């Protein structure tokens, strides 16, 4: 009975942690809905007065971006802002032929009168954080706008964001990500679904109540003095944006999130690219929990509620580990339930945690409704999208759990960039992208084994007990089977 007790205890703890996270999401939903009733009274610069228009530096950190570099530079050159108060830094850490083609393109743009510089380094120490820090040393702007290579800000972007810095306590203005290839495939749809939830429910829900939010690494603006006051960029985690965000807010800088300002970007279209991005984000989140946990807990200037939301925010990625634990242990739990009749009251109580899924379903519906509108047709589409999203998200749980464990255990790894494709239509081809890895990770093999394991879980529903089976966990195992199957076969197919 010792083994069974251990399984039950670990399973229960993981369920409790997921339930706590669900309750936090529900609280963010209430915050989000209440924020819609408030009018934005933030003071703003008057851009009709030339004296109130500040000097801006746009930083473009890039690394081997053959497929999107021209698009990025052409788009940034269209930004509508006084040329005498704007400089553009192309922070180029590339190691391939794009260094030269980028230099040539920059020279053409410079000839139009734009102040644009091509800044290269002899080494990539600190990766993206190191490049941003290097550029900051010579940046002339009072405010620093940052865009990754796959982002396409609209012409009036600076005029919609910079005015909020009239409030001298604001250190960052962050905008919502858009998705130019949202409907390319199931993979891009579920990525967009997850990001939309973050950029509506979570960012607004936290920011509207003064809780900590994060600069998302791109599509935002920093006050230069805020970066320096917070200790500047540091490259000791894989998510330097989250790291600096917390250090700034711990020093009482305010962040302004603009849900209504959308910055279009390209989602990864190949699962290997999505995997590398997910790994970096999830490992970086765990690394920042290690780095920031005690600083958040010990800070006397923030409320208990902000501390709780902050810690859960930093533990976001750890939810994948809890989901994996619950999934793997759910099959032994199915057998334990039907072997030990005296434990039935416990299992009746545990069924309460189905409420976690219901909470996520409700929270994400408000996000979906905000993006696509209400009505029965949209609700039916949402039901399908929710279960596809949940299944595939669980299919990523092994991959992301390994990232989380590495982060919590302090294992260091390189900053692996997400390959860009410049693909928005299904007819576009990504097969010949030179930056794609050709090898298959050992993780993929285990994802295939987990697919079979949860297939066994579905079979078990028919044979356990002596009353014709037990189908309570069958939908859960079906979703896990589909999720791991999707990730496994997509990962194999992308290498063929």
From TrEMBL:
Pfam families from the UniProt entry: Glyco_tranf_2_3
InterPro entries: Nucleotide-diphossugar_trans
SUPFAM superfamilies the record matches: Nucleotide-diphospho-sugar transferases
Membrane topology: Multi-pass membrane protein
Transmembrane segments: 6-30, 311-335, 347-367, 379-398, 440-464, 471-489
GO biological process: cell wall organization
CDD domains: CESA_CaSu_A2
Compartmental location: Golgi apparatus membrane
GO molecular function ontology, one term from the record: glycosyltransferase activity
Keywords of the record: Cell wall biogenesis/degradation, Glycosyltransferase, Golgi apparatus, Membrane, Transferase, Transmembrane, Transmembrane helix
Domain of life of the organism encoding this protein: Bacteria
Protein name: Glycosyltransferase, catalytic subunit of cellulose synthase and poly-beta-1,6-N-acetylglucosamine synthase
Native species: Flaviramulus basaltis
């Amino acid at each position: 009975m010792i083994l069974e007790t251990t399984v039950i205890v670990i399973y229960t703890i993981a369920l409790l942690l997921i339930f706590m996270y669900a309750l936090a999401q529900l609280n963010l939903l209430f915050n989000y809905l209440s924020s819609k009733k408030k009018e934005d009274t933030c003071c703003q610069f008057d851009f009709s007065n030339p004296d109130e228009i500040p000097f801006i530096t746009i930083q473009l950190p890039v690394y081997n971006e053959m497929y999107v570099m021209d698009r990025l530079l052409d788009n940034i050159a269209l930004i509508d802002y006084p040329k005498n108060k704007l400089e553009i830094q192309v922070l180029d850490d590339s190691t391939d032929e794009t260094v030269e083609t980028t230099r040539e393109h920059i020279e053409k743009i410079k000839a139009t009168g734009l102040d644009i510089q091509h800044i290269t380094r002899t080494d990539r120490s600190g990766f993206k954080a190191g490049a941003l820090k290097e550029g900051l040393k010579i940046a002339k702007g009072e405010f620093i706008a940052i865009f990754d290579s796959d982002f396409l800000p609209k012409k009036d972007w600076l005029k919609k964001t910079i005015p909020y810095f009239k409030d001298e306590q604001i250190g960052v203005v962050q905008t919502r990500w858009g998705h130019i290839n949202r409907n390319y495939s199931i993979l891009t749809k579920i990525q967009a679904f997850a990001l939309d939830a973050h950029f509506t429910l979570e960012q607004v829900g936290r920011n509207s109540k003064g809780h900590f939010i994060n600069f998302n690494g791109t599509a935002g603006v920093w006050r230069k003095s805020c970066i320096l006051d917070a200790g500047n960029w540091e490259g000791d985690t894989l998510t330097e944006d989250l790291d600096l965000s917390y250090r700034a807010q711990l020093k009482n800088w305010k962040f302004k999130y603009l849900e209504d300002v959308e910055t279009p970007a390209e989602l990864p279209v190949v699962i290997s690219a999505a995997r590398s991005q997910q790994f970096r984000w999830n490992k970086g989140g765990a690394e920042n929990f290690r780095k920031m946990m005690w600083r958040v807990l010990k800070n006397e200037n923030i409320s208990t509620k902000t501390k709780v939301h902050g810690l859960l925010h930093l533990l976001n990625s750890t939810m994948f580990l809890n989901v994996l634990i619950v999934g793997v242990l759910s099959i032994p739990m199915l057998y334990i339930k039907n072997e030990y009749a005296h434990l039935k009251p416990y299992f009746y109580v545990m069924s309460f945690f189905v409420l976690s899924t219901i909470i996520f379903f409700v929270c994400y519906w408000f996000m979906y409704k905000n993006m696509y509108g209400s009505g029965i047709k949209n609700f039916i589409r949402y039901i399908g999208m929710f279960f596809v999203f949940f299944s595939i998200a669980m299919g990523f749980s092994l991959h992301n759990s390994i990232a989380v464990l590495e982060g919590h255990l302090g294992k260091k790894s390189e900053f692996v960039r997400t390959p860009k494709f410049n693909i928005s239509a299904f007819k576009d081809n990504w097969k010949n992208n030179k930056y794609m890895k050709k090898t298959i990770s050992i993780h993929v093999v285990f994802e295939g084994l987990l697919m079979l394991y949860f297939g066994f879980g579905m079979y078990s529903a028919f044979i356990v007990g002596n009353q014709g089976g037990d189908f309570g966990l069958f939908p859960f195992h079906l979703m896990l089977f589909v999720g791991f199957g999707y990730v496994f076969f997509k990962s194999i197919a992308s290498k063929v």
